[in-house]
Every structure is written in structure tokens, then in C-alpha cells.
Amino acid sequence: MSLLTHGLLRTTANLAYAARGPVRLPVLMYHRVLDRSDPLQPGVPDAALADLQFKLLSDLFRVVPMETAIDELHNGRLKPRTLCITFDDGYRDNHDVALPLLRRHGLTATFFVASGFLGQGRMFNDTVLEAVRRLPDGPLDLADWGIEPLQLGDAASRVRAISVITRGIKHNEPHKRQAATEALAALVACPLPEDVMMTPEQVTTLSREGMSIGGHTVNHPILSTVDDATARREIVENRAALTALTGTAPMTFAYPNGKPGADYGPRHAAIVREAGYSSAVSTSYGVGDRDTDRYEYPRVALSKTTYTKVFLQLMRASSYVRHGQC
């Protein structure tokens, strides 16, 4: 990119932020950064795309940890062109792939970690992904789960199957969801990978490298599917585990799955606050401002693949407040 183009984009960003009224805080949402693209995960960035996106963020924005930005926003001290980078769940590639890229560009990020998976196992959606990847071509009958008949063959059919199965069991009670994924895994002739998530030591490394660690429950249940006692235990024990790992109590939390009103509600936000967190994020698309509820902060998932298009997506997203849709 030429110096002229870079200068024009910086000037455009300055003018846009100056003209739009109340200071707003874009919070970017990632889950994984793959070493190389995966045809069964078409929406997940690979290292090359993340490198491009991180370069733009480093060039044109001030990137700070989530808890820092929220405090600055609500105290009236947030500088223009400030944003946050967040990662959900605790995938191993956060450490192996994303961390070196963040270092390269001098960026920091907040990693929301589900502590129960550290060093072992997979979340239910990854069991679905890895099982469907390995199943033979042909029909897949999951009628007992209330799922339509599926036909496996090329990558497109498998992407569709992964989506249909995941949607079909996501909101089941945790033990029913677990039973369903175990039954699916049993259809596969070979073992599924057990190294999908970070180890405790890798979370410690992230913290030591200046990254912020946030809470994300122990076992990643959708909070609306469990009773309040279980929800409280998941939230409180996760915070205690992460505090023990890093020596610092996490101050910001991400609701699993994160859709307001469907995946969590006001009572869960109250538990998060009572547990000691100072803010929390959802998966609603939008950009918040000083009036946004600290415990229901929206986020933006970048989807563009060129420097200029990523910039334009950020500028467009920043014109939406709270739960605006883009």
C-alpha cells in the first residue's frame, strides 16, 4: 500500500470519528486464526488474512485491552480510533498462530477462555466439525436427534451438515448435547483430535506476553439452558481458575454463544457482575458508546479480505450504535 493511500485512510478515519458525535468503541470478535485455510471452516480467517487485518489495525487504530477501553469509555477518556480485539473460547491456534501475529504488529487482545477444556477434549461444535470431516461419503441419518436427513460428499455438503447439526443440538441441555456429540463421534473409525484447545501453560504465556484474559465459563454451556445455580458455578469457578493460572483476576466476561435474550438474560448479567467482573460482551453486531450497558457490549466480526475493504467495514460498523444491524 502506498504512503498516499495510507495517509488518506488515516485522514478519513480521523474525520469520520470526529464527525460522528459520541465516542464509540468497536470491539472485534474472533474465535480462531487457522494456520492455513480450511474448506470446512470457510468463515474462519487464516494466518494470511489475520496478518492483513492486524496490519490495518496497527496502522490506523489504537488497540487496547477490553477492560481498559471500557473504563476509559465510561470515564470519558477514550481517545478516537480506539478499538479492542477479542478471541472467544480458548483455541490452541490463539497461542500458536494469533499470538505471533499480534506480536508482529504490536497489538494486544483479550482472550475469553473456557477453562474446562484447557489441555483436553473439544467443545461440542468441534466434535461435530471433526466427526463430519472424517465420516464417509453417503447418507447421514440423525432422525433420532430431530435433524433432517443429510448427504455427505464434497466440502459444501459437509459445511452444510456441520451447520445443520450444530444448530440442531446447540440449545439442548448440556448433558443431552454431550450425548449427541459422543454418538456422532462413535460413527467415526479413527480418534478425533484432542489438542484443539490451549493448555494451561499457553494461557499463562498469553498473559505473560501482555494479553488480557477474560472469563467464558468452565464448560461453555449456553446459560439459558441451565439453572441459575449451575450458571453461577460455571461463572464463578471459571474466574477462580483463570485467576489461579495468571495471578490476575479477569475483569471482563463473554457470554457463551452470546445472543441476548436467547442465550443469556438479565439474571446472568447480574451473576457476572456479582462475580466481580466489570464488563461483559455479547455476540450482537454493533458498536457501543458511553450509554451502552457495560454488561451487554456488542461486537463486530471482520469479514473482508483486502486492506481497504477491512477499513471500510470498520468505518461502516462504527456508524451503528449498540445492537444496530449492518
UniProtKB/TrEMBL annotation:
InterPro entries: Glyco_hydro/deAcase_b/a-brl, NODB_dom, Polysacch_Deacetylase. Residues 81-326 form the NodB homology domain. GO terms for molecular function: hydrolase activity. The keyword Membrane does not apply. It is found in: Secreted. Gene3D superfamilies: Glycoside hydrolase/deacetylase. Keywords: Hydrolase, Signal. Its EC number is 3.-.-.-. This is Polysaccharide deacetylase family protein.
